[in-house]
Specification:
The protein has helices spanning 2-22, 81-90, 106-112, and strands at 26-34, 39-46, 53-58, 61-65, 68-72, 75-78, 95-97. It is an alpha+beta fold and 114 residues long.
């Protein structure tokens, strides 16, 4: 029960962060975290698209490298084949250095790790 509440709180907080980054491209319709399974799933509506976009990131880990945070994952799949290929081309190492301002949210992000 406590884990579910924590996952919901983290999902809300992270969706607010993502919402601000995606506002030029579309909107976040929903974001779910399952910290025990290390899975993040989201539903998005992109501008110009009739159908929602679904994305699932699994096997995630958040680590600190100096004053920066990094997100690594086992897989990131979306409901768009072209986007899956683009993500593989742009992020071949399955690792993303989070923006410097993400360190402000390090307390929340640490909750993802537990």
């Amino acid at each position: 029960m406590l884990r579910k509440l924590k996952d919901q709180a983290v999902a809300w907080t992270v969706s607010q962060f993502i919402r601000s980054k995606l506002e030029n491209y579309g909107e976040v319709l929903g974001l779910d975290f399952d910290s025990s399974a290390r899975v993040i799933s989201g539903k998005f509506r992109l501008r110009g698209e009739a159908d929602p976009l679904y994305a699932v990131l699994s096997g995630y880990e958040v680590s600190e490298e100096g004053d920066r945070l990094s997100l690594t994952y086992v897989s990131l799949e979306t409901s768009r084949e072209w986007l899956n290929q683009l993500l593989k081309d742009l992020i071949p190492t399955n690792s993303i250095k989070l923006p410097a301002q993400a360190s402000r949210y390090s307390g929340i992000i640490r909750l993802l790790m537990h």
